[in-house]
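A quick aside before the break. I want you to see a complete sequence-to-structure record at least once, exactly as it would be stored in a machine-readable document. Don't worry about memorizing anything.
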Amino acid sequence: MILHIAPDYMNKPLYHHLLEALQSQENFCDHFVFACDNVVHNTQDIPHNVHVVNRSFSVLERLLFFPKQKYLLNEVEQHISLKNTELIHAHTLFSSGYIAYQQYKRLGIPYIVAVRNTDVNVFFKHMPHLRHIGREIAANAQKIVFISPAYKKQVMGTYLPENLLEKTTVLPNGIDSIFLQNRTQHMPAEDIIRLIYVGRIEKDKNIHTIIEVTDRLISQGYKVSLCLVGKIIDSEYKTTISKRTYITWHDQCSKKEVLSYLRQNDIFIMPSYHETFGLVYAEAMSQGLPVIYTRGQGFDGFFEDGHVGYAVPCEDVNYIQNRILDIRKDYMTLSGHCKQCADMFDWQQIAASYNNIYQHISHGTR
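That is the input. The structure line, written in tokens, reads:
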């Protein structure tokens, strides 16, 4: 049995997609999930192979780290049959990895860890007193999985020693099958630059820079439209959007509707200040849309600059504008690359890679 320590399982569909893909692999093995949530779920909504701890942790418990971890560790030992566990997959380095590390010390169960946003931007960055714990967890893991090259670059050599590089790998998150099953080569409009953004409309997503770039292009004589899709979180954007006739706004909507909006536009743009991964870049690629993404953040590093789009300094309006014009010059080449490279974000391929890791570790530790 593979035990997954994934506290956010009930709230993040990506875990559901991964487990579903893992269970469809040829070399099938049992997967069991240990999760935690402060919401009491109907038992009918919880899969048979998932154990959910219902507990709301205080701010103090979260800040002190160890009280929360001790509680979760006890829950694992009371409710999970560890004697049948061949491998633990900890889906975060600190919170999940600590539980896996303790079971490794006590029972010798090998484990792998994933490095995610909270590990990089909360624990390593703002909790220096816990960095030694993160290093210890990583040093004893069989494999360290980064969800993006950007995170690997940020962490290795800065927070984790270079001698751990040989046990690292990069495996992205996947996208919903509706996008991959309906991939298309995109044909751009000839007389207008049609930009699209999909996501929460808030300051951290840097919407004001997207608007400034669009204003600049229009002032230079280009015909441009901007489609914004997502819930407005920061209310001041309502006024900004209402003043610009070139902007169309659609509220939060279904994946099917997102697919339709992507097909009605030509270039996806999201120069966020902080981006954990950005599945929507991959969703846009599947529809043949070249992408503008933030340099040094989650999506950066998967592809060479100019292959499926461009990494940009998030507030450099002139640079972003020029990259949009570069995309226009060679649109069909980039669009073709996007459609082809979207396979990288297929959950089945990602699950197959994880399965290979599991098999290698399992065979190597017998």
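Two observations worth writing down. The longest strand covers residues 31-37. The two ends are 14 Å apart (CA to CA). We'll return to this after the break.
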